């Protein structure tokens, strides 16, 4: 068997070069070989949709058979320590510096630590669910693969489209914010480093080439080597930890308990929950760590340790940082736009604003770096299934990274970052993130309580009835909280009792059909059911614009799926070799020259 060619140019399949560009690389499926074939595929759309909507993938396909589509493997060279730092780097960005002051001032008051605790609790619940699924299905696709296995092809496609959209928009927003904080660091106006073009419409007339350079630089580092990227992120995270330690030390050394009075809840419990829905975005990004499972040496041990340890530590840090802020300065005097800088200035430390700006820059850089890793892996797995052209699944034989997928995501983010203002980007709400987290929790319940061919019809009906009660009561609680009856407690009792009845019914009446192989979520089914409830509750706190955007984007994705995705995935699913076991599939792929084995040396 030939090894990877010198210089990394020759891929594994019959001497094919990695750097290539042909129709066959983008549209290799029979449905796209000619216009006549495509016309025939369109005529068969209805039965193909039924096939895809009712089909579920398997661990063997996601973690084995599909690897051949990349021609070269991703390298297993990461430990749980690497994953913990990647989790820290992906989550701890500028959000805590920007959102804490805004929400303390207008929504939560001195109770802002409780808002972070509530949001952190929800994020931690989701991380437990991700941890079990990542050990069971150690695929680069993360939640996309989990949903394909447990909820089917169509649900996974809708999830994938929304996650990729949020990833591109989020990266663009971080790039624009990076420029703003750089300007603050050198004492300039936030738009001083942007190019004003009067001929363009408002919101698109401040060009940001610095954001483009930052995005391209972090992505270039990400494609060079995953191990190197992880090491650099770990070193940067140490700097970030030092800055956070400085903020905490100064904050608590100037802590005044009187600043928490006269009322710890000036906006009531409702204000705390509104703030929790907003600061939740300070926790997003941990799901990108799950996409690194395919490159982890021991995913069964390392993924749970990395995910849960990083999210637990981050929750504690966020609560402490927010408490330090409201202890330094009364909430009514906090500057919503530059909370920590103004608070430091109020205690005679104006120079500390540079430390804050440096901390935010570091956080955003780490977020972009880890985001470039995770987003590319996500795109790679989606391309392996042919939902998007398989060209983007190719892994470079020398670097062991998905260069084409990284370039595609980076170009999309760079185009948005160059033209679109932060206000425009912010209008594309992250409702998709909560939606995906809720689906992942549901997928975990499905995995534990339903096994095709094993679960009896009666057991399936019992499971579906209690699952429907959990989901409907969670939605009902969210709707009730945002209705005109929100101040009346009986409604909360009713929905809470219904949720508890559904969860207890699963625990007592529905038999678990599958035991976790390595790591299992504790308190099953209570913990994933609580994750469903908290994510749906926070979704209800978002405005109508988020749901309009979600509906429009979902409709556009469905059009793409009907015209392209369903036919490509149908051809792929019905091709040979889709039923092999994961081990056999990977072995056969190597034997047939479809995958080049890459040693762990150099990792």
From TrEMBL:
Transmembrane segments: 77-99, 111-133, 154-175, 235-252, 264-283, 303-326, 403-422, 428-450, 462-483, 489-509, 521-540, 546-566
Name of the protein in question: Cationic amino acid transporter 8, vacuolar
Organism, scientific name: Dichanthelium oligosanthes
PANTHER family xrefs: CATIONIC AMINO ACID TRANSPORTER 8, VACUOLAR, INNER MEMBRANE TRANSPORTER YGJI-RELATED
Record key words, sorted: Amino-acid transport, Membrane, Transmembrane, Transmembrane helix, Transport
Domain Cationic amino acid transporter C-terminal, first and last residues per copy: 519-568
Subcellular location: Membrane
Assigned GO CC terms: plasma membrane
Lineage, opening ranks: Eukaryota, Viridiplantae, Streptophyta, Embryophyta, Tracheophyta
Family that this chain belongs to: Belongs to the amino acid-polyamine-organocation (APC) superfamily. Cationic amino acid transporter (CAT) (TC 2.A.3.3) family.
Sample GO molecular function, one term: amino acid transmembrane transporter activity
Keyword Ubl conjugation: no
A Pfam family per the record: AA_permease_2
Predominant location: membrane
Membrane association type: Multi-pass membrane protein
């Amino acid at each position: 068997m030939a090894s990877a060619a010198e210089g990394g140019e020759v891929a594994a399949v019959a001497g094919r070069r990695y750097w290539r560009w042909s129709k066959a690389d983008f549209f290799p499926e029979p449905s796209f070989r000619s216009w006549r074939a495509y016309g025939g595929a369109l005529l068969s759309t209805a039965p193909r949709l039924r096939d895809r909507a009712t089909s579920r993938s398997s661990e063997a396909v996601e973690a084995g058979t599909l690897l051949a589509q990349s021609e070269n493997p991703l390298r297993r060279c990461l430990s749980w320590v690497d994953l913990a730092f990647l989790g820290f780097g992906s989550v701890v960005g500028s959000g805590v510096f920007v959102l804490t002051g805004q929400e303390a001032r207008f929504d939560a008051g001195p109770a802002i630590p409780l808002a972070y605790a509530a949001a952190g609790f929800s994020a931690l619940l989701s991380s437990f669910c991700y941890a079990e699924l990542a050990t069971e299905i150690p695929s680069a696709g993360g939640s996309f693969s989990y949903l394909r296995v447990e909820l089917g092809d169509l649900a996974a496609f809708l999830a994938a489209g929304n996650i990729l959209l949020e990833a591109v928009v989020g990266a663009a927003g971080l790039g624009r914010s990076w420029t703003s904080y750089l300007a603050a660091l050198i004492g300039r106006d936030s738009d001083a480093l942007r190019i004003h073009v009067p001929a363009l419409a408002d919101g698109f007339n401040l060009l940001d080439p610095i954001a483009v350079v930052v995005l391209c630089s972090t992505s270039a580092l990400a494609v060079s080597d995953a191990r190197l990227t992880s090491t650099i992120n770990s070193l940067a995270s140490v700097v970030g930890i030092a800055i956070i330690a400085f903020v905490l030390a100064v904050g608590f050394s100037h802590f005044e308990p009187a600043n928490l009075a006269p009322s710890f809840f000036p906006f009531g419990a409702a204000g705390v929950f509104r703030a929790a829905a907003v600061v939740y975005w300070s926790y997003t990004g941990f799901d990108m760590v799950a996409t690194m499972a395919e490159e982890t040496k021991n995913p069964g041990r390392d993924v749970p340790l990395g995910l849960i340890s990083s999210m637990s530590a981050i929750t504690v840090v966020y609560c402490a940082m927010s408490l330090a802020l409201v202890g330094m300065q009364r909430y009514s005097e906090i500057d919503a736009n530059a909370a920590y800088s103004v608070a430091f200035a109020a205690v005679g430390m104006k120079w500390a604003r540079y430390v804050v700006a440096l901390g935010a820059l570091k956080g955003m850089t780490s977020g972009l770096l880890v985001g470039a890793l995770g987003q590319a892996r996500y795109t790679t797995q989606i391309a392996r299934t042919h939902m998007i052209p398989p060209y983007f699944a190719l892994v470079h034989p020398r670097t062991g990274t998905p260069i084409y997928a990284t370039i595609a995501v980076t170009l999309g983010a760079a185009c948005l970052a160059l033209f679109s203002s932060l206000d425009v980007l912010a209008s594309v709400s992250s409702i998709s993130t909560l939606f995906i987290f809720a689906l992942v929790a549901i997928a975990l319940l499905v995995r534990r309580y339903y096994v095709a061919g094993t679960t009896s019809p009666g057991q399936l009906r019992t499971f579906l009835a209690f699952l429907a009660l959990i989901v409907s009561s969670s939605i009902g609680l969210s709707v009730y909280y945002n209705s005109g009856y929100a101040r009346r407690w009986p409604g909360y009792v009713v929905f809470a009792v219904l949720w508890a009845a559904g969860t207890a019914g699963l625990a007592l009446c529905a038999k678990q059909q599958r035991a976790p192989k390595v790591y299992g979520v504790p308190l099953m089914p209570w913990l994933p059911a609580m994750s469903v409830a908290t994510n749906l509750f926070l979704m209800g706190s978002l405005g109508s614009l988020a749901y309009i955007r979600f509906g429009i984007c979902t409709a556009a994705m469905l059009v793409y799926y009907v015209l392209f995705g369903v036919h490509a995935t149908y051809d792929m699913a019905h091709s040979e070799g889709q039923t092999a076991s994961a081990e056999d599939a990977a072995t056969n792929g190597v034997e047939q020259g479809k995958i080049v084995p890459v040693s762990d040396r150099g990792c």
